[in-house]
Amino acid sequence: xxxxxxxxxxxxxxxxxxxxxxxxxxxxxxxxxxxxxxxxxxxxxxxxxxxxxxxxxxxxxxxxxxxxxxxxxxxxxxxxxxxxxxxxxxxxxxxxxxxxxxxxxxxxxxxxxxxxxxxxxxxxxxxxxxxxxxxxxxxxxxxxxxxxxxxxxxxxxxxxxxxxxxxxxxxxxxxxxxxxxxxxxxxxxxxxxxxxxxxxxxxxxxxxxxxxxxxxxxxxxxxxxxxxxxxxxxxxxxxxxxxxxxxxxxxxxxxxxxxxxxxxxxxxxxxxxxxxxxxxxxxxxxxxxxxxxxxxxxxxxxxxxxxxxxxxxxxx
Length: 316
Known about the structure:
Elements: H1 2-50, H2 54-74, H3 82-90, E1 99-105, E2 110-116, H4 120-123, E3 127-129, E4 142-147, E5 169-174, E6 177-189, E7 204-212, E8 219-228, H5 246-296, H6 300-315
Parallel strand pairs: 2-3, 4-7
Antiparallel strand pairs: 1-2, 1-5, 3-4, 5-6, 6-8, 7-8
């Protein structure tokens, strides 16, 4: 029973320790996990672009520019028909996953994939391009808008864009072209106030959108940038990216943790077993010594009884 109790105690201790580690490490691990997926998506995108046929590249870019030119005439389409949505989803989809490109914001140290649309599945792990706004290929009379969550326990995304100020820069990479934008306006508006997202003649804007205030989400934070020349060091150089599967990294990180826990359990169990055995051995030795002493000294009533028996025998 004692050994069974020790095993159950070990199981409870390990379970509680693992639960505590999981609770404390969940935000950090989730953010790391999503960052790995984002890095993998970006590396896959760069590789797909590098392998494109030059004619296909030109056709994809030209189609996106034509789409923006049509929007400049009609204005932003906030309610798209099925046919319009089908056309939209087919543009800039190099990898077949809906990924358009990726955005980099040096000040807050994030590099995030940008996908078509703002479905919840997209916004949980990446940035979504708002359908009906200009595509992120720049050009006169274009205004691209992208949206991202903030405050998620599983990913940083746009959590820190409220720290951006006028003059800060961010870039968006589409195919292998880098477009640089400088923040010129930061505004907080109601969700139905859309005037700040309108296309302005001859202007090239890109607006980052997220919910605010943090945890309440009753308004929208709009961080707008206007197109500027690329800064030194922002020209994208295609390179061979090492793509490490996220689950492999997770396994390598998990193994040392599990091994450490196992060693701790074995050592703690071994110490308890050793102490119990030492106690049992001491108790056994004490009982044996006591038994030996009792066997060497006979009780007085036993002696008297023997003498009484002998006397009776003689009398007979």
